[in-house]
Each structure stands twice: as structure tokens, then as C-alpha cells.
Specification:
This protein folds into two domains: 190 residues, no CATH class; 180 residues, no CATH class. It is 5% helix and 50% strand. The protein is built from two helices and 21 strands. The chain is elongated.
Length: 383
């Protein structure tokens, strides 16, 4: 079966750069989720017969041609990367590197700086992929151990020829057809990735802004005796508070666990009653954009001799601050003691609930919203 490599004559270019960062150093968090994108450029010349003549011209290379042939190695030794570093073929939702200073040892820093200054291919950020004579592919690095740093080169295995790489001394493969020739490919180029210890979120890392007493109004409930026909109407002062949670690195994802939910879209966390007062915590799905919905307690309860009719609901606007995770607290306050049956009329009822927060780099924290009955507000605790 014919191969794109059959006409190989010479490796002309092998280079690497960060996609979204300028320079040769980048940082990630060592949580196993955060990835940084490295783009590789390969230019290979081939020998072809055209009109009875032998011509040398670039071989067209696709990502599929390169996918299984690209590898990475230690810049100084050419040896393999250790197990705490993982190279992926695809991005994930936490693919984002950050700028960091070059902090490798003096020996590595001096040799790499000299090599890169004189021989690296300088590519402007995001300009990769524009030369039709060059094959391009992206690979993605992650790490599972903090305070780690690696300066790596890129290599390529060309079937029937051998390995070439951009390590300090290159490989011993001759740069010619079948691995036969008079010169070797020596083109030192490297990148350095620093892995910062994973950030595990605690309460102190959360930025919480509050919008109090929205949509203040009056709601009522009716208490009726079947035997005498007597009934009483109780008015509840109704309002809701929104809590907006953000973190310094930005929230990428929120996973809700054990909440009553779809298709009603009512994510009920907790219902409490402070004698006559009724409270509900509603945890909203993250990232939906601004929405409105009705939440509350409504329905009819028959305990045999008495009948409760109640419509304590609020029309709630939520997720109205982009990038923030929104939790609402509904409050219904009555001037006289009258206990409403807790939990009636609410589907998917549970008290065993929490949410997982992931920032844009994949750092994680697990929390639970809790109602403080003595102060009548929400607290966010570790779950």
C-alpha cells in the first residue's frame, strides 16, 4: 500500500510553539485536567518524477499523516518524558495555558536560550496553518504533579527512515531517503511548561455578591375547617434574594448533584420553616444566560379535618450576571404563627445535595448551600 512517506527525500523543517502564548514558556495547573496546546509544523521534501524528470518539492501532509508519528522528548537528553506528563491528541474544556517566567536551571536556560535565539522558527501567535507546503498538528500537555517543570523538544518518526527531533543534539538518523545521506537534521528548538500545584477551592476563595429583597410583594394562604366552614387567610411578605458566586480564575463548569430537576428545571436545595416563615433555596443551572421562572410552595393539603390552600410563589429572574453561578433564596414571612407543611408540592425532594465548581483551568471545589435559620440567609459550606 502506497504511503505518503514513500517519496521522502529530506526533512526540511520541524518546529513547535504555543498556540495562545508568545514566547517559549507557559504554565498549567497540575490537576490532570488543565491542558496547554502545542502546535507543531513539519515540512518534508520528496522526490517525484514529472515528465521524465526527477523533481524535489514539498510533500503535502495532513493531520492524519502526522498524528501517530509525532512524539516529544527531553530537550537536553532526547530521552522520553516521565509519567507525570501526559500528551493528548485533543483539547478539552480546560485547555488554557498562562504566561510564566523561564525558571529552568542555569545550564538548561543558557543552552536553550542560545539555541532558540539562533535556530528556532519564529511564528507569530495563531499564525500556524497558513503555509500549504507545511503540515500542522496540535498536541496538548497536562500534568498531575505540582512544582514540576519540563523543557521538551518535538520529534517525528518517518516510516522507513527513522526518528528526527529538535533536542539539543538531534538524533543519529541520516537525513535522506531510507535514512541514508551525508547530513543529520540538527535544529534545536524547545518549549518549557511549568506545572503549578492544583488549586483546591475553599469558602475563602469564593467571591459572593448579593442582591437582596427583589420583587417584594404580598402572598396569601388559606386555612379552612371542613366541619365548621371557618377559614382564615394569612398574608406572607414575599421576596427573594440572589447570590452570585464567582472565582478569580472564572468559572468554567458547575455540576449539580442530587437536586430535584429536569424537566421542571426547579433545582431545590433545601426548605426550612422558622415557625410561620417559609424559605426555599433554588440552585440554578450554570451558564444558561438570563432566565425567569416561577418557584415556591403551592397546592392543597388535606389532613382529614383541615384544608390548606396556598400559593406562595415568586417569579424569579436569575443568571442575570454573566459568568456568575446564581443561587436564589425565596422568603415568605407571616406576622402570625402558622406552620405550612414542609415540602408539599415540590418534586425531586432531597437534602443530600451539593455542587462541584471547576474554574477555567480545571481547579475544583465541592460546596453545599445551607440556610442559616437564625439569620435567615444562605451560607456556602464545603460539602
Amino acid at each position: 500500500m502506497a504511503s505518503v512517506w514513500d517519496n521522502f527525500s529530506k526533512l526540511a523543517e520541524l518546529s513547535l510553539n504555543f498556540k495562545d502564548l508568545s514566547g517559549t514558556t507557559g504554565g498549567i495547573y497540575a490537576n490532570g485536567r488543565n491542558r496547554i496546546e502545542v502546535q507543531i509544523a513539519v515540512r518534508v521534501l520528496g522526490s517525484f518524477t514529472e515528465n521524465g524528470n526527477t523533481v524535489t518539492k514539498p510533500i503535502t501532509l495532513t493531520e492524519n499523516d502526522l498524528k501517530d508519528n509525532i512524539y516529544f522528548c527531553d530537550y537536553l537528553t532526547g530521552g522520553p518524558l516521565d509519567s507525570k506528563w501526559t500528551v493528548w491528541d485533543s483539547a478539552n474544556e480546560y485547555t488554557k495555558g498562562f504566561r510564566t517566567r523561564q525558571s529552568v536551571s542555569t545550564q538548561q536556560s543558557n543552552s536553550i536560550t542560545k539555541s532558540l535565539d539562533t535556530e528556532a522558527v519564529h511564528v507569530t501567535v495563531n499564525a500556524v496553518g497558513t503555509n500549504p507546503d507545511v503540515g500542522y498538528i496540535s498536541k496538548y500537555f497536562s500534568c498531575t504533579k505540582g512544582n514540576s517543570e519540563k523543557t521538551f523538544a518535538v520529534g517525528i518518526n518517518i516510516p522507513g527512515v527513522g526518528n528526527f527531533d529538535t533536542s539539543k543534539n538531534g538524533t543519529t538518523t541520516w537525513n535522506g531517503p531510507g535514512g541514508v545521506g551525508k547530513s543529520r537534521f540538527i535544529s534545536p528548538a524547545a518549549l518549557t511548561v511549568t506545572a503549578t500545584p492544583e488549586l483546591v477551592y475553599a469558602e475563602k476563595n469564593l467571591i459572593i455578591e448579593k442582591a437582596y429583597r427583589r420583587n417584594e410583594t404580598k402572598k396569601r394562604a388559606v386555612f379552612k375547617s371542613y366541619a365548621s366552614g371557618w377559614y382564615a387567610t394569612k398574608e406572607f411578605e414575599a421576596y427573594y434574594d440572589n447570590y452570585y458566586i464567582t472565582v478569580e480564575n472564572g468559572i468554567q463548569r458547575i455540576d449539580l448533584h442530587s437536586y430535584g430537576g429536569e424537566p421542571t428545571n426547579k433545582w431545590i436545595a433545601e426548605l426550612t420553616s422558622n415557625h410561620n416563615n417559609q424559605h426555599m433555596i433554588v440552585v440554578h443551572p450554570f451558564g444558561t444566560g438570563q432566565q425567569t421562572n416561577t418557584f415556591g410552595f403551592w397546592g392543597t393539603v388535606n389532613n382529614g379535618s383541615m384544608n390548606y390552600n396556598f400559593e406562595l410563589e415568586q417569579y424569579v429572574t436569575f443568571n442575570d450576571r454573566p459568568g456568575a453561578f446564581c443561587i436564589s433564596q425565596l422568603t415568605f414571612m407571616c406576622n402570625s404563627i402558622w406552620d405550612l407543611p414542609d415540602g408539599v408540592g415540590i418534586g425531586g425532594w432531597t437534602f443530600n445535595n451539593w455542587f462541584d465548581l471547576y474554574d477555567t483551568y480545571g481547579n475544583h471545589g465541592r460546596f453545599k448551600p445551607v440556610y442559616d435559620d437564625s439569620h435567615q440567609f444562605i451560607e456556602i459550606h464545603l460539602a
